[in-house]
Design brief:
The structure holds two protein chains of two kinds.
Chain A (H helix, E strand, L loop, with lengths): L3 E10 L2 E11 L3 E6 L6 H8 L7 E6 L14 E4 L11 H11 L4 H10 L15 H13 L5 E5 L7 H16 L3 E6 L2 H5 L4 E6 L2 E7 H8 L3 E5 L3 H10 L5 E2 L5 E4 L3 H11 L5 E5 L3 H9 L13
Parallel strand pairs in A: 3-7, 3-8, 5-6, 6-7
Antiparallel strand pairs in A: 1-2, 1-4, 8-9, 10-12, 10-13, 11-12
Chain B lengths: L2 H13 L2 H23 L6 H5 L3 H17 L6 H8 L3 H34 L7 H29 L2 H17 L13 H6 L12 H25 L3
Helix pairs in contact in B: 1-6, 2-4, 2-6, 4-6, 4-7, 4-8, 6-7, 6-10, 7-8, 7-10
Chain lengths: 306, 236
């Protein structure tokens, strides 16, 4: 099984640290979301992992070897960095054929990935006629070409229509189920929550979190209960007696922070307070993420990652 | 990773870009057409050069071919994709240079006999001798190839086709037409002046046909090495 190992990775551009002593491991069999605000160093880290940029210090290895030491790397690692990488005057199929030839990947794989990404009908068209979503699919097709054990995608849902977003979600889940190592960068929190099992979060080049997605949310967002009742006075009194805070909401309901539906539901039933609605407040990844990165976000007019 | 798959990949890239195939065709067309025009007005003092007069124009297409084939990699992250498939940058650039040089050489070898035949047909003056013709054909093919490789090397350093063409083409035009008559001295050692000696029936400078081509080889090699060095040193 092939992991991505990043150890003490640092990259400076003219004195500015884009990536600062980063250490994490991306394991096979799950989708790891790579999150951070723009300029946090996600793309720089991916370029370092793929041996495209040289680290100032530290190492990035894939299955224990640096990327540049891989023989026929597309058979081990598939990457989507930039949807504009394909030349506009070439057809989608020719773009993939050139890439396949360099790593001795048989032509059948080109047809297979065109089919898999839904591009087969457009394969003979020049890339300049493709929509952004189609270019994104072509980039994903290129990443899957060598049937790699490791898949690295930089913002893959960029420009995809809703149908495409559902497709990529299923694709990522399937790749992980097949035992592959899947690393997907994004700045879209809720989108990432829909496919990731694990999170690596960056802010200003630092590692902010490396944790399962459930733990990430639960550690940062307190659970709550949302209630609607016909007898607000009785509810408030009941909750106050048991040490809960009931906060009225605009739509004439109540929210109770730090509470679980199991407890509140039993109390209300025992006290005979009528219940119109009782629901757990879902903690979202977005809240957890904003909570974590608000202090780290880089709003200054610094050059953004390319 | 061996060289052949990388070369195959680079060759697919070249033959699937219509603009590159077009500039290869333009090398042949421009050379033959301008040679024919030149041969009409020749005074017969240099029969070989009057048949190969068009090479000065055909080289523009060869330079455009070499520069564009390299600069296409510097658009929209194409180089990152290329180098993620072939992380050995030296090997990749060697394959790229081969995929540029071989087709230009082939087109050049085709252009030579054709331009001789066409120029001979339209010109009333003395035809070049058979050995001169053979030298001209080889010289034309090698010269065009070396200029394409020279441009490829410059494009890898400048990372831009526009910058490369707007540097090389005015340079060649100025050298050929402005200081071209100042024979002797440093001008003889410029890449185009040195290489084009092989296209003349007679010469009076320090360089002969083969030594002249050798000087152009050095120019092309220097440009390619600079390009390879720049590729290896810089982040993609």
């Amino acid at each position: 099984m092939t992991s991505i190992d990043v150890r003490d990775l640092t990259k400076e551009y003219g004195g500015r640290r884009a990536v600062d002593r980063l250490t994490f491991r991306v394991r096979p069999g799950r989708v790891t979301g790579f999150l951070g605000p723009n300029g946090a160093g996600k793309s720089t880290t991916l370029r370092l992992v793929l041996g495209l940029d040289r680290p100032t210090s530290g190492t990035a290895t894939i299955g224990g070897r640096p990327y540049t030491a891989l023989r026929e790397p597309l058979r081990h690692v598939g990457a989507l960095l930039d949807a504009q990488a394909a030349h506009g005057s070439r057809t989608g199929r020719d773009h993939l054929r050139a890439l396949a030839a360099s790593n001795r990947i048989p032509c059948e794989r080109v047809e297979a990935v065109l089919e898999e990404t839904g591009l087969a009908p457009a394969a003979r068209r020049r890339v300049r006629t493709y929509s952004l979503g189609m270019r994104q699919r072509l980039g994903i097709a290129a990443a899957l070409l060598g049937d790699p054990a490791v898949v690295v995608l930089d913002e893959p849902s960029n420009g995809l229509d809703p149908e495409g977003i559902v497709w990529i979600r299923r694709l990522l889940r399937r790749l992980a189920t097949e035992g592959r190592t899947v690393l997907v960068s994004s700045h879209l929190m809720n989108e990432t929550a829909s496919f990731a099992d694990h999170l690596v979060v960056l802010g200003r080049g630092h590692l902010l979190a490396d944790t399962p997605i459930r733990d990430f949310i639960h550690a940062r967002v307190r659970p709550g209960v949302r209630i609607r009742t016909t007898d607000g006075t009785a509810l408030a009194a009941l909750l106050a007696r048991h040490g809960y805070d009931a906060v009225p909401t605009e739509d004439r309901g109540w929210t109770v922070p730090d509470a679980r539906v199991e407890d509140i539901g039993r109390l209300m039933s025992e006290a005979g307070v009528p219940v119109l609605e009782l629901a757990a407040e879902e903690a979202t990844l977005e809240q957890a993420y904003l909570d974590l990165t608000s202090a780290e976000a880089e709003f200054a007019a610094q050059p953004q990652e390319a | 990773m061996s060289f052949t798959p990388v070369l195959r990949s680079e060759w697919i890239k070249i033959r699937t870009l219509p603009s590159l195939v077009g500039s290869l065709g333009a090398v042949l067309l421009a050379t033959v057409a301008f040679s024919a025009l030149g041969a009409v007005g020749t005074d017969g003092t240099d029969p070989l050069f009057s048949a190969f007069f068009g090479v000065g124009f055909g080289q523009t297409a060869a330079i455009a071919f070499g520069a564009t084939a390299v600069s296409a990699e510097f658009h929209g992250g194409a180089l990152r994709l290329t180098l993620s498939a072939v992380p050995d940058r030296g090997r990749w650039f060697a394959a790229k240079a081969t995929a540029i040089g071989v087709p230009v050489l082939a087109v050049g070898l085709l252009t030579g006999p054709l331009t001789l035949a066409v120029a001979g047909a339209v010109s009333g003056a003395t035809a070049p001798t058979w050995t001169e013709g053979l030298r001209g054909t080889l010289g034309c093919a090698l010269y065009l190839t070396l200029m394409a490789l020279f441009a490829a090397g410059v494009a890898a350093v400048l990372r831009s086709g526009v910058a490369t063409l707007s540097t090389l083409i005015p340079f060649l035009l100025i050298v050929s037409f402005v200081i071209g008559d100042m024979s002797g001295g440093v001008a003889d050692f410029l890449p185009d002046r040195a290489g084009q000696v092989a296209l003349h029936s007679s010469w009076d400078g320090t360089l002969g046909p083969w030594t002249g081509l050798a000087v152009t080889v050095l120019w092309a090699a220097a440009a390619l090495l600079a390009g390879a060095w720049s590729l290896r040193r810089r982040d993609a």
